[in-house]
Amino acid sequence: MENLVYAIILLPLAGFLFNGFIGKKLPKLVVGTLATLVVFASFCIAVKIFLGFDENSSPVVIKAFEWFQVNGMQINFAFQIDQLSLMMIMIITGIGSLIHLYSIGYMSHDKGFSRFFAYLNLFIFSMLLLVMGSNYLILFIGWEGVGVCSYLLIGFWYKNEDFGKAARKAFIMNRIGDLALVVGIFVIAQQMNAIDYMTVSQNAGKFELNSPVIVFITLSLFIGAIGKSAQIPLFTWLPDAMAGPTPVSALIHAATMVTAGVYLVVRSNFLFSLAPSTLDIILFIGLATSLVAAFIGLRQNDIKKVLAYSTVSQLGFMFIALGAGAYTTAMFHLMTHAFFKALLFLGAGSVIHAMSDEQDMRKMGGLRKKIPLTYITFLIGTLAISGIPFFSGMISKDEILAATWVKSPVIWFLTLFSAALTGVYMFRLLFLTFFGEFRGTEEQKKHIHESPATMTIPLIVLAVLALFGGFINLPHFVGHEYSLKLDHWLHHIYLFDVQQAEIPLWKELSLMAVTVLVVLVILFVLYKMYVKNGKAALPENEYTGWERLSTKKLFIDEIYHATVVKPIEGLGRAGKMFDKEILTPFTDFVGIGAEDTGKSMKRFQNGNVENYVLIMSLAIGIILIVNFILQ
């Protein structure tokens, strides 16, 4: 297994180095094929290891080398293969290889083709390092690596100033969370004299429930997760990250990087289970994020911005599950979300490709007849995320809703309301884009065409996963023989026995029925509104009331600009003023004073030996007289 594990992580690194150094000299097909194959090879190796694993297999730690020692603490550069890391590896490399294949067609005319694929391979390497590392320090290296790759890929078209600003915004906001993560790791090392997962999990049991140290550590780790997984208040970077090419949005900001925070919490379950107060905070922040992002998504008109706020909202769902202690449910929704959200982003990319780079839904319409394959796959993704029965998103969301019911019926209702908003903005997107009359220009209409096979094949594969992915963890009442039962697969990664309080079958079925009914009502109302009655999206300046709040994103960016950016800029100007008006004159004064003193001393230091002897004699005489008087 050791060589296989090394191959998983080194293949994408080799692809990065190859394309980064000599990719420009090679044909684009060679560059794209090589970059795709190294990721797909990693996926195949992961599947091979997965087939040799079962739910009772113990974690395998593979030590590459001894890294360093500090205070008697041995830090190894090692990888840990267990049920959780295998699940993440297959998601990263499986979906990653599909997105690499898609990018061959999508980026075929871009001058930075080889650079783009080098960045993608480097991202896959960094993400694998994050989930495969056996300790928090290796996780942090991968964590920073995906942050750097995110910056490079969001600002890929760096000649556009706005794209550069979006990349910087993502980088800076993630640094806030990263600082908290570093602090948390330092405190873990100080308290437990170890940072590897297995030792920390063994030492965690000595702490009391909700002890101040554990609460501090878990809050620090969670703040790190807030930054990477775009939760309130550090979520505004993710919608702006849509400045990058669409495959970037699908890979980094839907399926993998933004789920790193969820992975961190689940990997650290042995700490979070000891801090119920932190879990409560996680639940409420996740709930607030899901509601706020869903509300903002209701009246966005950029097709990628709708999906971006949808991602923030769905991440909120995952944190709701984490806060309810349903770690497996959070991972299940992470997986199904990776399927249908990658599908939706790539489908949006296919639409944008067909529309000659147009992203405004108000200028689309009637595309289902022009690009039928994109429409069918996008429809499947929309039905999955909206919670239509038998699709993967419905099964994972119902698990979250069941967990919230156990926690509180009020939280269940608010979570259901957020799920309902998901249906509203997604069906609005679907109907404005694919139904009705075409609202673009005649020039755009002439050039509408279906995407090439390199782009449509990934759509088909992801559509199948979005449709059937829920069978991995069907509800318990369906029967184990029809499901892989993800909760059994992940059971051994939890130090403390994680058992969800079960609700009666009739109540669980009733909750599912309510959810399905709500979604079907929304589908009927939105279909009548946008298809039958032909309602179109208004110009942004014509929105009023709550619609204006939604289209203006609750003015959160403006609030941050006024309360954070402006004061910092003011401090910068004040510092510049202090430097110019006070510090510079003072240093000039000191310099001029020293210069004048030197000029004055030149009169005495003139090289005349007789004067030096006279001064010395006078000084000696004065000293003798003073000494005589004092005696």
TrEMBL record:
Q: Which residues form the NADH-Ubiquinone oxidoreductase (complex I) chain 5 N-terminal domain?
A: 67-117
Q: Which GO terms describe its molecular function?
A: NADH dehydrogenase (ubiquinone) activity; NADH dehydrogenase activity; quinone binding
State what protein this is by name.
NADH-quinone oxidoreductase subunit L
- Which keywords belong to this entry? Membrane, Transmembrane, Transmembrane helix
Task: Say if the entry is tagged with keyword Transmembrane helix.
Answer: yes
Q: Which organism is it from?
A: Halpernia humi
Q: What is its main location?
A: membrane
Q: Specify the domain of life of the species encoding this protein.
A: Bacteria
One GO process term, biological-process aspect: ATP synthesis coupled electron transport
Indicate where this protein resides in the cell.
Endomembrane system; Membrane
Membrane topology, record value: Multi-pass membrane protein
Q: Which Pfam families does this entry report, sorted A to Z?
A: Proton_antipo_M, Proton_antipo_N
GO CC term, one of those recorded: endomembrane system
Domain NADH:quinone oxidoreductase/Mrp antiporter transmembrane, residue spans: 135-422
**Where do the TM regions start and end?**
6-22, 29-51, 84-104, 116-132, 138-158, 170-189, 209-227, 248-266, 278-299, 306-328, 334-352, 373-391, 411-435, 456-478, 509-527, 609-630
